[in-house]
Amino acid sequence: MDAELPDLYAATSARLVGLLTAMGGSAEDAEEVCQEAWARLVVRWDRVKRYEDPEAWVRGVAVRLLISRRRRRSVATRFLPVLASRAVVAEPSASAVDLSAALALLPLEQRAVVVLHHALDLPVDEVARILQVPVGTVKSRLSRGRAALAAVLSEQVTP
Amino acid sequence: MNQWTALLERHAAAAGPRSFEGVLRRVRRRRQRQVLGAAVGVLLVVGGAALAAARPTSTARPQPGATSAPDTIVVNGKTLHRDKLTPILSVSAPSRDDHLLVLVAGYRDPYPSGPTYCDPWTVPYVLRQTATTVVVGAYDYLVPRPPPPGGGCFGTGHSPATLTVDLGTALGGRRVVDESSGAETTTIVESDFLTTARLPDGYGDRRFFGGRNPGFSEPYLSQTWTGPGGAELNLVEGPPAEVIHVHVQHVGTAQVRGRFGQLVRTAGGTANRCLRWDEGPGDAVELCTRGYSQQLLTVEGLVAFADLLRRPGAADVRQQAPASIQVQGRTLEVQGGAAFAVGYLDPAQPQDIVVHLTTPGSVGGCFTWPVLRVVSQSPDQVAIGVFEYQVAKPVCVDAMPDTREDAPYLRVALAEPLGRRRLIDVGAGGLEALVIDPTQWLTAGRLPAGYSDRGQIPFRGERGGGGSALVTQTWAGSHGLVQLVLQQGQATALGGDPVSHVTVRGHVGTYSSAPGRTFPVRCLSWLERANDRVVLCSNGGDLKRTLPDAELLSIAEGLRPRTT
Description:
The structure holds 2 protein chains of 2 kinds.
Chain A: H1 4-24, H2 27-43, H3 45-48, H4 54-72, H5 74-77, H6 94-104, H7 108-119, H8 124-131, H9 135-153
Chain B: H1 3-14, H2 20-53, E1 72-75, E2 78-86, E3 88-93, E4 100-105, E5 121-129, E6 133-142, E7 161-166, E8 175-178, E9 183-184, E10 187-189, E11 195-196, E12 204-211, E13 220-226, E14 232-238, E15 247-256, E16 259-266, E17 273-280, E18 283-290, H3 299-307, E19 309-310, E20 324-327, E21 330-338, E22 342-346, E23 349-356, E24 369-377, E25 381-391, E26 409-413, E27 422-425, E28 431-432, E29 434-436, E30 442-443, E31 452-453, E32 459-463, E33 469-477, E34 480-488, E35 497-504, E36 507-514, E37 521-529, E38 532-538, H4 549-557, E39 560-561
Parallel strand pairs in B: 3-10, 6-8, 22-29, 25-27
Antiparallel strand pairs in B: 1-2, 2-6, 3-4, 4-7, 5-6, 8-9, 11-19, 12-13, 13-14, 14-18, 15-16, 16-17, 17-18, 20-21, 21-25, 22-23, 23-26, 24-25, 27-28, 30-39, 31-33, 32-33, 33-34, 34-38, 35-36, 36-37, 37-38
């Protein structure tokens, strides 16, 4: 195993867990999925390390794993609290909480494209590649997701 | 920090990611399960072989329709066995006259060591062809090894492959069927879509994606060119429902290819912009400049690029004009047509049509020399076109001229006045142009001292939203600009937040204010007739002080029909 893997993990895993939490709502789920995605990266590292952005690869795998996992448990997780966190952190701004709460009301598929596109600034075709759905599907989910967010937040959402 | 960044950082800070050792434990457990599974697999294979020895040998039957897909292929020295048909995500063809089809399906990583069980090698085949149908299939080929036990392959972080098949004959109007589903695929014929013959400097490396979502009848095509510093130019054309980039802020409007276009800011870099317009019914286009590069196209560059887009399958506009002309002693060759969108009548020359272009003409460099000519005249309509000419081998310094206000007016004389006939814009693909008769519109009868016409375009017509006609006149003076916007048809915005009301020309008028980007804006608006809205604004100028309300009201009361 390459020595750089632990460093890459240290540098990126919190970011990935943050993204997955924003997308999936459960910190435990996010950490579990992060570990699983990294396990898959480790066994494929010889190939993935040649990629331009290995973090993007593990992020794509993690996002799909999360969606797959949540689909299987959609009924069970539907009513889980969405802002659970285990660590003591600074009080978030009201807008961040509003956004989190509003995001949690979206179906997972819409939430995923909204977070990937708006929070990570990924272009639509990249989101489509990660989620393995057509670009048009991403656009329609974005459109519906934004409309739902706007309705909840009652203001224009800025990226 | 914006809300999205705050959200991610908050969740990242709250996360207590488990250690990397946890990842390694997970990998070790999985490998132990694999070893155990492989041992079980060997037992099963041995047992299966014993059973097979007791049965008559049978030849494996090819899958239905798989008449040209071999059972095995050799890749990088490895013999691969045909597995399953994989869904074809999209099919495209350069044109209906072409015999190549480009399929997006499966996976084919160009790794040097050859395929593995978890990385199939996808091969496309033309399985059947008739006069009406082409049946294609993409097969996954695998190394002949049992799948890893304990959950199959790790990870799925790969993109579909772009694969090409040769039909041997032109596609024509035939439908393409994906053998994996038995259903007709969306076939993107690129020549049906807008494209460009000239890219901005530094742009290239085109990639495209097309498709058709369930519920939408027409396909769409997305083309992306990469430019300096990773800047991207993305052109999406298709049904309006497909051509939706999430926009953050409406920035303004622009005339694009003779159409009413909207300019929006999109997510991502602060300079990301999209132009959106309708090419025709059910045919929307969005052109975006995006990325974090310092060299993104300007809005003017975006408009100029849009004006140069061509539809390959359309009739060649060039054939409707002389192939070459002489200008300033140089021979220029016709390149194509350009949209003019709005034709102005000249009360002093009733047979003339005047058009105003957005870019300057030039007989050298990459700029073109525009010529306005009459293509046809009939009792119902008059077709005129702006044709672009250029030297045979231009020396390009700046391939994307900026839109400039001193761009030329062109004039052409008809055999008789236009009258009630429709004016067709040949360069805009036959779209009906907006005709502005200045005598039908109001103009200022009195202006504050020191105000005068601004530049060469004091009077500008354009198509507004919903097909309405919009005429803007601008005068410059000590308090900045005074702008008169007249709209026939769909009502336009007020020009800020309503503040108070006043009686103007016998109608109830509304004063409104907006901070503006650079200068404060104060407007007075009213309905002159049922569908005729008037918006009169003062923008404050360098003094940052708009004209007093009484002054705006005085200008409004002094408006009169234009006579010239």
